[in-house]
Amino acid sequence: MIDPVALFLLLLSASTPILFAALGELVVERAGVLNLGVEGMMIVGALSGFAAAYHTGNPFLGFAAAAGAGALVALPFAILTQFLMSNQVASGLALTLFGLGLAALFGKPVEGVKAPAMISGPLGLNWIVWLGLLMVPAIWWFLNRSRAGLILRGVGENHDAAHALGYNVRRVRIAAIAFGGAMAGVGGAFISIATVLQWTEGMTAGAGWIALAIVVFSNWTAPGVLAGAWLFGGVTVLQLRLQAAGVRVPVQLLSMAPYLATIIVLVAISARQKLSRRAGGTAPGSLGQDFHALR
Amino acid sequence: MTDAAVFRARGIGKSYPGVRANDDVSFAVDPGEIHALLGENGAGKSTLVKMIYGLVRPDDGQMELNGQPHQPADPRAARAAGVAMVFQHFSLFDALTVAENIALGMENPPPRRDLSAKIAQVSQDFGLPLNPARRVATLSAGERQRVEIIRCILQNPRLLIMDEPTSVLTPQEAELLFATLRKLADGGTAILYISHKLEEIRTHCDRATILRGGRVVDSCDPRAHSARALAAMMVGGEMRPIDRSGRQAGEVLLQVKRLSQPAPTAEGTALKGVTLTLRAGEILGIGGVAGNGQDELLTALSGEIRSAPGTILLEGADLSRLGPEARRSAGLLAAPEDRLGHAAVPDFSLTDNTLLTAGARKGLVCKGLIDRPAARAYAEAIIRAFDVRTPGPGTAAKALSGGNLQKFVIGREVMQAPRVLVVNQPTWGVDAGAAAAVRQSLLDLARKGTGVIVISQDLDELLELSDRFCALNEGRLSDPLPTEGLTLDQIGLMLGGAHGMEVAHL
Questions:
Q1: Tens-place pLDDT, residues B268-301
Q2: DSSP assignment letter at B151
């Protein structure tokens, strides 16, 4: 009835947008910044990527444009939170609303057109899927093995200490925010260029929020993000398959399943973390806190 | 010593809005010397070393390191020039390992395997045992400091700055630290040692520069002076000896009967059958090694955690099930150990902070509305009576130095004239002058008939203040003994169980 290999390949595709967005947000949060604007950056990436791909006829240029647009739209957030000391939660929410509105406004001309076809990579999977899978060890290596990653973690863990040691907290955080924006942009573009093949308003449909949840689920690790993305992608694919197979479960319930699974996992995780906060709590120490240096 | 100084400051000055933190500060540190920088909290010691370490830029004056002008733009430049610093509040990253923490403090760290080997080497050379792979969050205060020291040693500094390093250490750990410093100094490193602890400076330092109000008041050999003389230079006048006179125990005020409660947190301590009686005009001292139930006892008495009925009686009335506000109204007040975050809200002004505990007793709240002029007047009264050094009652609590904020939060309770006051660690991390003021205020309060419970880890303080002494040990409170004639040895035995030795039976 359901071929597990085919299901897994579908899962890989289905999980790619949130994998990109969550990996980006992982780096941002490890630097100590909570950016709730993932959804907004994704939708901006989805539109600009799609528009660039449509106009140039080259999907890869589309993804590059999406990364650029994602980083660019994250910059106001960076300026607001890093220089003007705005509240990160409020600024992030504003970024989401801003991105959704901006994309809806500029998306009108490309409504109803079709994306150019992409050449598949190995196993018939999109190259971007492979890129996403490659990003997992790459980001793991960056965070845990490289000097720059160590500094980034230091900034996120204790920004006062990092400052006292002479690291430029703002610069590190702005770079991280821009990177997170680029990753979210690529994730969004995957939906419009490679999955839906066209642009529709609000097409990210909450993927950014799931990505945020997955970062928490992952305990702020790259392999954990992959697991979370696969779990969510898997449930998404499974419910589509079950619907197609005519299982007598209400459609609404099945559509709800991925979100439900996310909530259940988050509750389980936070219950566990509450028990072992001292022993193994892993949220970055300065997450979401403003940094203000006395000079 | 006659050879050229490692570090020399000439006429350093620095102003912050409203404060002249440093003014015309000049001194020199020689190689191989442990040089003490002595001063009260707020005397400008921290600002001065921050300038040497490149965290703050001086407004005027020059600094020299090894004969070269020293104008670090940031700490990395200072480190490159040969300055290393161990911070008062450790600049460590809890979630990272020891090796990662050390790597972050170095300009060009070697690859991780070499670094681990180097850490092992240094920790052996200096007798500072440390496992590079451990997460800093799991280390004790003493071990954390070792991380910082090793981080400094690995840079082969010419000048090592230690900012109040022993305030978080046990006496044994402090001895170990001084042995390490002496070894470093013998190797030619100059050490600038910041502290307000007179005895350790007299024992371990070669020279002392004394700061008061941002200026150098004297430079001397600390061994040639008594602690009293140094204190006088530091505070600018003779220290008044503590006045214990004029008190006598009156009627029973507070009774705690078999107070037991489970540990409130995973790291907390359960209280087991705590029983005590407190009389009017009496000071009861409760000693013990940290983590033996001090916080839990304070929160149980203050009402933050409610206990079983009939366990806490104030003048016969059962307060066990009442919350903090109701207990305050009844006259039972408490000042917790953590002044910034528990006793005071860091971002609130002093005026707002008075409202947190004094709202009802001082009539600062009327029909649900805050009487702001009254609150400000009360804050001003505390500032005046307790000599709190601050621009005014509108200042945020976090902007005050530790000693000044401590005087303020103690003053806030004392001036409410409570029936019973419970304080935990009233002079922790506070300079000598402020500590004496806080202690005297507790004695004065008792003289007026208030019962005072002082929970402290400072045994000298307890012997100085209290009439009777009990030891808190794994949540159990010993029977009280009169302080008169009690020796430190006896007290050590009372506290003994905490160290895993045989529990003392008293």
A1: 788 999 999 999 999 999 987 767 788 899 999 9
A2: H
Q: Which domain holds residue B16?
A: 7-235
**A105: Cβ contacts below 8 Å, ≥ 6 apart:** none
Give the span between the Cα atoms of A15 and A235, in whole angstroms. Answer: 10
Touching check for A158 and chain B: CB below 8 Å? yes
How many structural domains comprise chain B? 2
ipTM given for this complex: 0.76
Task: Decide: helix, strand or coil at residue B205.
Answer: coil
Q: Helix/strand/coil (H, E, C) string of B26-62? A: EEEECCCCEEEEEECCCCCHHHHHHHHCCCCCCCEEE
Q: Given the structure tokens 């024992």, which residue do they identify?
A: B203
Answer for the pair A165, A293: CB distance below 8 angstroms, yes or no: no
Residue B268, min C-alpha distance to chain A (Å)? 12
Closest CA–CA distance from residue B178 to any residue of chain A (Å): 24
User: Do residue B270 and residue B160 come from a single domain?
Assistant: no
Q: What is the CB neighbour count within 10 angstroms for residue B496?
A: 16
Nearest CA in chain A to B47: A295
- Facing A278 at nearest CB: one of B87, B91, B267: B267
| Residues of chain A neighbouring B104 (CB-CB closer than 8 A) | 150-151, 154, 162, 165, 167
Q: Where are the beta strands (DSSP E) in B312-457?
A: 312-314, 317-318, 332-335, 365-366, 369-370, 420-424, 451-455
Q: Do A161 and B92 touch (CB under 8 A)?
A: yes
**Closest chain A C-alpha to B19 CA, distance in angstroms:** 14
B394 occurs within a structural domain: no
What is the C-alpha to C-alpha distance for residues B203 and B109, in angstroms, rounded to an integer?
Answer: 36
Answer whether A157 sits within 8 Å of B96, measured CB to CB: yes
CB contact under 8 A, A150 and B96: yes
| Residue B481 host element (H or E) | strand B481-482
Backbone angles phi, psi at B211, to 5 degrees: -110, 140
Spatial neighbors of A129 by CB under 8 A, at least 6 apart, are A12, A13, A16, A121
The Cα A181–Cα A140 span in angstroms is 18
pLDDT in tens, chain A (295 residues): 567 788 888 888 889 999 999 999 999 999 989 888 899 999 999 999 999 999 998 999 999 999 999 999 999 999 999 888 888 888 988 999 999 999 999 988 888 888 787 777 777 788 899 999 999 999 999 998 888 999 999 998 888 888 888 888 999 999 999 999 999 999 999 999 988 888 988 888 888 888 988 888 888 889 999 999 998 888 888 877 877 777 777 767 766 766 776 677 667 666 665 554 444 446 777 777 777 664 4
For domain A4-280, give its CATH number from 3.90.1750, 3.40.1000, 1.20.140, 1.10.3470.
1.10.3470
